[in-house]
Design brief:
The chain is α+β, with helices and mostly antiparallel strands. It contains two helices and seven strands.
Length: about 120
């Protein structure tokens, strides 16, 4: 079985995301970067962003507790909105935002479930 960044990228491509590459942050952690990710719902519906998803070596047995977003202009200010979002500086760089969120992974179809949860985050904002 394939694990880690290779598994996440392979799954994302199989889900129809065409522009997916591997990137690393300043701490050498892996991310799957979806270029030109279109937000499907919520107040940012239709907006095109760069979306980076953490890919721990054990993925899909575990996943990172966040998404990282590069958007111009930024979608939301840094800070905490209880029950909605916690946005801080991302280790990917000054222009990136780290949106904290606890994901639940389903072992049957982990990446499809993960993308569904990411879309739900945008739907609530």
């Amino acid at each position: 079985m394939n694990y880690g960044i290779n598994r996440l990228i392979e799954d994302l491509i199989n889900l129809g995301f065409n522009e997916v590459i591997s990137i690393k942050d300043a701490n050498n952690a892996n991310y799957a970067l979806i270029s030109k990710f279109e937000i499907p719902a919520g107040s940012f519906s239709g907006k095109i962003i760069e979306l980076a998803i953490p890919a721990p070596d054990q993925y899909p047995q575990m996943c990172g507790p966040s998404i990282h977003i590069l958007a111009s202009p930024i979608l939301v200010p840094f800070g905490n909105v209880p029950g909605v979002r916690n946005v801080i500086q991302s280790p990917l760089g000054d222009s990136w935002q780290y949106w904290s969120y606890q994901f639940s992974i389903n072992p049957v179809n982990p990446t499809a479930v993960l993308i569904s949860q990411i879309n739900e985050i945008f739907k609530r904002n």
